[in-house]
């Protein structure tokens, strides 16, 4: 291998090919390029035309240089250039590769694999055989197969199958396995380690070093894997202990709490100060979210030790205490003491029964002061059936009414009190708890005494239901399973009136146990737990492999994670028990100092960069470019310039199209502002040009008249389209009905209906008064009906002579337009609907034609038969109409009737 | 079913013709035409001259009005307005299938257009036309145009020059092609026809690239009629020589035709066809 500085060539003899480059240069210079081929008819005329000077055509210089570079790149690539090559192996013999594939290797697994591949590559280059083995036991706890010498190709395949395993390494076993091979001397031994000392690292290194020169490869110092361990389960917040192997420098990490479905529920940054090997991290979360957390993981660290699995034991269940908020003396009530006792480890909710149960709780605590109505009892009973736990406390009230169905045992009436009928001389103490009681194992302080309690009737099953007794055998706490839940009765009070249990620490512990009972996992499980899901070496949950074994019954506390029981969830899918890795890692420390003579290397820094692939890719690109250039020089490239221009034009067109809707939106706003800021008369565009022109001119004329004679200030009339425009700005809408107008679309009908419902007025002008024969009248009706099909308009009536329209501004008797004599149809007056104002007015007199005038007031259309006086009447009708639209039935009230009658001369 | 099939085939065949015909007629419509006189006495309608009566003339031909005016007896003579036969030929060889640019028509397309347009003009002018080598007799009317169009669409000949046919005297021959055959061969044919008493007109249709040779660098030229390819190392250097040769060829053709009283004209495919057509038609109608 030839090395020049940091670059080495693995196949240096190929570099002799570089000597051929000048020859290539000369060849390329001398060979003329391929000629262009042209078809030409007048060939005969060119025959014999000798060009004056015969300088041969030359390939352009830049093309020659391109080809030279291409050739040089190919030769260099074939010579396998390597950056930072490893020193070649000196001695003869096989290469031994020991790989730490326990849980600690997962953090730097990629680097380790890359280094392993490079080592195998180097062995292949130098023609050595390989011994490859991992230090962790294989899954299932079976004995690993014996080692053998492998060829590099087989070793590569074996290396591809290596995966980190989620349990600690067993290097002693691995060393024994290696010794069984009986290798006398190896050329090189490389131990790819995870930098963790499991207690056997020094002996492993010493054992390996006896067989050859040992190199230990590991990740750089500060990035050792970290471990998550469990903490006390009953803390208010979610907690986890973070341990690390090397406590010398401060470390930071982020903890992520993940739900059942892998969703991130909370995140917490944790800083471990220098010198500390572990720290307890708290993740505060609301209770509902906390109960959904299934695992806690260290962010960006994919190993089995960085994942902490949580099961039912870590779910917090809220406890509800039934108490009245406005109690007279809160500090004397049992609820206060219960709150104090429960709040260190549970979330406490107070209230009445219904709200507390509805809020979702695990345990309901009923001090004696809680009064239960029938509804409450029923609610509690159904909740009990569904799996809730009720803890009732005795007290004076219960002693007075012992026949209570919500009790686990039947009570004797009366209570036993110091100095009472069934009396005792001294306050009684508690007897130690039985082994099968949920309180088993709790230490009883000496000073807990009970001075008063309620007594239970002795029945056959009383002993079975008793969870705690006094020293004389009377039950203190009894419980009965109802449905899926537990009904627990503490035979004394929750406040210190009858005993001082309430103020002792024992109460806290007993209530904790009761809360634990409510979660259904108290005591030891008596069923074997098959694996449900297990972690792989990278900390991901998968369905349990066949090699994972069942945890035998009763052995959960003793089981540690290992090859037979990988960390994960055991049990059934509903009742899962989590087995974590942390208890299995006994010795969590970095690698100790190794004996001298052992070389240390880094995974990452020993990078060999092989330049062959990029050089070959570069050569390929040059070859393609050369091919394209050759085609271009011979004129064989197709014409693609026009297409590029068309594509650019299409893109520009698309951009222009996209920009137009925003302009349109701005236009809609402007129209809305214009419509709302002033009063506009509006006409519906029919699509027939002269009808629309007539409507517009008519409304212009009417606006002029309005502005002159009334207080209405009408701005320029606007044409609207009921399909698209907003009708809300216009109090009055003039709608000329023409032949051939298509029926309204559903959207237009919706708009118009909404307009009518919200108080708009439409004047339908059928414009057919000049054709008084029935046929056209019927046709007009048909047109109107078709137009208004879909609109809900009440049946119209002829305008009565005392309608508001006849007197809203002027006093009118008839309503001529261009024609006279037509009838006007309005909605029947019902004061309740729309304040009595008719939303629809239908007539046929073609008013727009009568109103139509230009800016100077010169009318456009003749008025038949009345002439100008009729036009004046038409204007007056228009004014009346606008006043009706703007003021409603203002003029219909009776106040004005006398004045009007007087003016009418009656 | 035979009839519709035949009709379909006929219609399908005729579908090819109208574009060429329509194009030809459109070009021809740009040129004003009419029947022309022969400037000699003969059968016709137009008055030509009065001539004195000579013994032997039929008595019915005496124009009595004119005779009454003067002392002598006159016979009225009319101008000879006979349609002439025009024999068209266009070069269908492989060298005509060339266009240097996608926007230009091939030489054959232009030659077809010119031929048919000329035929349309002549037919409108009352002449009788036919295509040399087609076997059709010269005829008037629309029908011959259709047949000519069909022949032109079909006809791909192998030779650069028309074969010699026995044609009646006083006809006209028109050859449209690139006339790049060796000058001797052309001269021999032209002289033969001229000896047979026919008048002729040659129109050379060339592509602009054939005149200007717009190529550069090392080019391998391949001929269109199975000639051997020619490799020229630098085309720019032979441009002047080539132009000189083309000019000499054209001068030779011009001299040849002038010598026998024929005409020679050139046309480039990037120029509008009306130019060549107008020139040719005017020449035709003057003689």
Describe this structure in words.
- The complex is a heterodimer of chains A (906) and B (287).
- Chain A has 906 residues and is α/β, with parallel strands linked by helices.
- In chain A, 30% of the residues lie in helices and 21% in strands.
- Chain A has 21 helices and 41 strands.
- In chain A, the strands form ten sheets. Chain A has a seven-stranded mixed beta sheet with strand order 18-17-19-20-27-26-25. A seven-stranded mixed beta sheet of chain A has the order 36-35-37-38-41-40-39, with helices on both faces. A five-stranded parallel beta sheet of chain A has the order 6-5-7-9-33, sandwiched between helices.
- The longest helix of chain A has 37 residues.
- About 1% of the residues of chain A have low confidence.
- By secondary structure, chain B is an alpha/beta fold.
- In chain B, strand 5, helix 5 and strand 6 form a beta-alpha-beta unit.
- Strand 3 of chain A pairs parallel with strand 7 of chain B.
List keywords for this structure.
heterodimer; A: 906 residues; alpha/beta; 21% strand; B: 287 residues; five-stranded parallel sheet; 43% helix
Tally of alpha and pi helices of chain A = 21
- What coarse outline of chain A follows from CA principal-axis ratios? flat
Mean pLDDT of chain B, to the nearest integer, reads 81
Low-confidence parts of chain B:
none
Oligomer: heterodimer
Radius of gyration of chain B: 24 Å
Q: Distance between termini of chain B?
A: 52 Å
Q: Which two protein chains have the largest interface (Cβ within 8 Å of the partner's Cβ), and how many residues from each?
A: A-B, 23 and 35 residues
Our measurement of the CA-to-CA distance between the termini of chain A, rounded to an integer number of angstroms, reads: 130 Å
Q: What would you call the shape of chain B? A: elongated
Biggest beta sheet summary of chain B: 5 strands, parallel
* Number of strand elements of chain B: 9
Uncertain runs of chain A: 520-524
Instruction: Tell me the series of helices and strands of chain B, N- to C-terminal.
Output: HEHEEHEHEHEHEEHEH
DSSP strand content of chain A: 15-25%
Mean pLDDT of chain A: 82
**DSSP strand tally of chain A:** 41
Class based on secondary structure composition and strand pairing of chain A: alpha/beta
What percent of residues of chain B are in strands? 15-25%
């Amino acid at each position: 291998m030839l090395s020049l500085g940091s670059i080495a060539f693995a196949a240096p003899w190929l570099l002799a090919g570089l000597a051929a480059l000048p020859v290539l240069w000369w060849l390329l210079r001398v060979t003329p390029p391929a000629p262009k081929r042209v078809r030409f008819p007048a060939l005969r005329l060119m025959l014999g035309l000798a060009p004056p000077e015969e300088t041969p055509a030359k390939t352009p210089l830049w093309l020659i240089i391109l080809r030279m570079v291409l050739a040089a790149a190919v030769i260099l690539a074939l010579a396998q250039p390597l950056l930072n090559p490893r020193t070649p192996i000196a001695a003869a013999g096989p290469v031994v590769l020991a790989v730490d594939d326990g849980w600690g290797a997962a953090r730097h697994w990629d680097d380790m694999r890359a280094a392993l591949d490079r080592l195998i590559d180097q062995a292949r280059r130098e023609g050595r055989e390989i011994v490859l083995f991992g230090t962790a036991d294989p899954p299932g706890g079976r004995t690993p197969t014996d080692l053998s010498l492998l060829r590099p190709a087989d070793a590569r395949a074996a290396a591809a199958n290596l995966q980190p395993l989620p349990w600690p390494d067993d290097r002693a076993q691995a060393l024994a396995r290696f010794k069984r091979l009986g290798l006398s001397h190896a050329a090189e031994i490389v131990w790819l380690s995870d930098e963790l000392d499991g207690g056997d690292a020094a002996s492993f290194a010493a054992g390996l070093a006896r067989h050859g020169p040992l190199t230990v490869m590991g990740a750089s110092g500060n990035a050792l894997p970290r471990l998550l361990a469990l903490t006390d389960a009953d803390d208010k917040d979610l907690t986890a202990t973070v341990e690390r192997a090397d406590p010398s420098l401060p470390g930071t990490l982020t903890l992520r709490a993940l739900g059942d479905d892998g969703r991130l529920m909370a995140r917490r940054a944790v800083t471990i100060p220098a010198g500390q090997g572990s720290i307890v991290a708290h993740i505060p979360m609301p209770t509902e979210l906390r109960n959904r957390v299934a695992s806690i993981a260290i962010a960006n660290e994919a190993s089995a030790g960085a994942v902490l699995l949580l099961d039912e034991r870590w779910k917090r269940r809220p406890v509800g205490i039934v108490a009245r908020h406005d109690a007279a003396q809160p500090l004397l009530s049992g609820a206060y003491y219960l709150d104090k006792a429960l709040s260190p480890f549970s979330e406490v909710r107070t209230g009445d029964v219904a709200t507390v149960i509805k809020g979702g709780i695990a345990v309901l605590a009923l001090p004696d002061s809680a009064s239960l109505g029938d509804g409450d009892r029923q609610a509690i009973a159904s909740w009990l059936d569904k799996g809730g736990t009720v803890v009732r406390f005795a007290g004076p009230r219960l002693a007075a009414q012992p026949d209570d169905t919500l009790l686990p045992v039947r009570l004797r009436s009366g209570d036993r009190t110091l100095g009472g009928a069934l009396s005792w001389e001294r306050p009684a103490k508690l007897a130690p708890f039985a082994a099968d009681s949920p309180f088993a194992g709790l230490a009883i302080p000496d000073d807990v005494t009970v001075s008063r309690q309620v007594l239970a009737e002795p029945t056959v099953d009383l002993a079975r239901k008793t969870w705690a007794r006094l020293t004389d055998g009377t039950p203190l706490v009894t419980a009965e399973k109802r449905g899926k839940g537990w009904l627990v009765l503490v035979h004394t009070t929750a406040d210190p009136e009858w005993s001082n249990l309430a103020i002792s620490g024992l109460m806290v512990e007993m209530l904790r146990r009761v809360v634990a009972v409510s979660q259904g996992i108290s005591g030891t499980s008596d069923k074997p737990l098959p694996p449900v899901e297990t972690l792989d070496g990278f900390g991901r949950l998968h369905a349990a492999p066949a090699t994972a074994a069942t945890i035998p019954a009763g052995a959960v506390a003793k089981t540690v994670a290992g090859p037979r029981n990988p960390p994960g969830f055991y049990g059934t899918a509903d009742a899962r028990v989590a087995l974590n890795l942390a208890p299995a890692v006994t010795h969590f420390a970095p690698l100790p100092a190794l004996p001298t003579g052992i070389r240390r290397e880094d995974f990452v820094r020993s990078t060999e960069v092989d330049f062959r692939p990029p050089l070959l890719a570069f050569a390929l690109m040059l070859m393609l470019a050369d091919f394209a250039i050759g085609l271009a020089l011979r004129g064989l490239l197709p014409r693609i310039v026009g297409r590029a221009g068309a594509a650019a034009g299409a893109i520009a067109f698309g951009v222009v199209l996209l920009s137009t809707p925003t302009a349109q939106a701005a236009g809609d706003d402007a129209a809305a502002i214009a419509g709302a800021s002033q009063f506009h008369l509006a006409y519906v565009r029919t699509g027939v040009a002269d009808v629309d022109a007539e409507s517009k001119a008519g409304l212009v004329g009417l606006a002029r008249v309005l502005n002159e004679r009334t207080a209405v200030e009408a701005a320029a009339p606007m044409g609207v389209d009921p399909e698209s425009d907003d009708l809300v700005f216009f109090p009055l809408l003039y709608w000329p009905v023409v032949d051939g107008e298509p029926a309204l679309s559903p959207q237009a009908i919706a708009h118009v209906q909404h307009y009518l419902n919200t108080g708009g007025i439409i004047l339908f002008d059928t414009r057919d008064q000049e054709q008084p024969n029935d046929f056209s009248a019927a046709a007009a009706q048909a047109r109107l009906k078709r137009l208004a099909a879909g609109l809900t308009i009440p049946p119209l009536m002829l305008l009565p002579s005392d309608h508001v329209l006849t007197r809203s501004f002027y006093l009118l008797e008839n309503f001529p337009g261009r024609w006279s004599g037509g009838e006007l149809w309005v909605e029947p007056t019902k004061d309740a609907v729309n304040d009595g104002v008719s939303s629809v007015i239908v007539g046929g007199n073609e008013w727009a034609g009568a109103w139509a005038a230009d800016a100077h007031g010169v009318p456009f259309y003749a008025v038949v038969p009345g002439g100008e006086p009729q036009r004046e009447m038409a204007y007056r009708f228009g004014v009346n109409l606008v006043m009706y639209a703007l003021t409603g039935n203002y003029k219909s009230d009776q106040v004005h009737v006398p004045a009007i009658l007087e003016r009418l001369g009656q | 079913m035979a009839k519709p099939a035949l009709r379909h085939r006929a219609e399908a065949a005729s579908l090819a013709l109208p574009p060429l015909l329509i194009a030809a007629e459109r070009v021809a419509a740009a040129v004003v035409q009419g029947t022309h006189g022969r400037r000699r006495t003969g059968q016709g309608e137009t008055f030509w001259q009065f001539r004195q009566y000579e013994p032997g003339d039929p008595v019915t031909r005496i124009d009595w009005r004119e005779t009454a005016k003067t002392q002598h007896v006159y016979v009225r003579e009319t101008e000879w307005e006979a349609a002439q036969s025009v024999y068209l030929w266009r070069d269908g060889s492989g060298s005509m299938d060339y266009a240097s640019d996608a926007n230009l028509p091939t030489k054959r397309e232009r030659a077809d257009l010119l031929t048919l347009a000329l035929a349309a003009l002549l037919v409108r002018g009352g002449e009788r036309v036919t295509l040399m080598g087609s076997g059709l007799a010269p005829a008037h009317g629309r029908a011959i145009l259709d047949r000519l169009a069909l022949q032109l669409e079909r006809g791909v000949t192998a030779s650069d020059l028309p074969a010699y046919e026995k044609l009646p005297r006083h006809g006209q021959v028109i050859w449209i092609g690139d006339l790049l055959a060796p000058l001797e061969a052309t001269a021999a044919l032209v002289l033969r026809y001229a000896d047979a008493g026919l008048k002729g007109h040659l129109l050379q249709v060339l592509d602009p690239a054939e005149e200007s040779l717009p190529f550069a660098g090392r080019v391998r030229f391949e001929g269109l009629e199975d000639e051997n390819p020619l490799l020229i190392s630098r085309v720019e250097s032979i441009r002047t020589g080539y132009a000189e040769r083309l000019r000499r060829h054209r001068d030779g053709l011009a001299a040849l035709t002038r010598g026998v009283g024929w005409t020679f004209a050139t046309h480039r495919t990037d120029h509008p066809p009306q130019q060549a057509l107008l020139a040719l038609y005017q020449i035709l109608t003057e003689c």
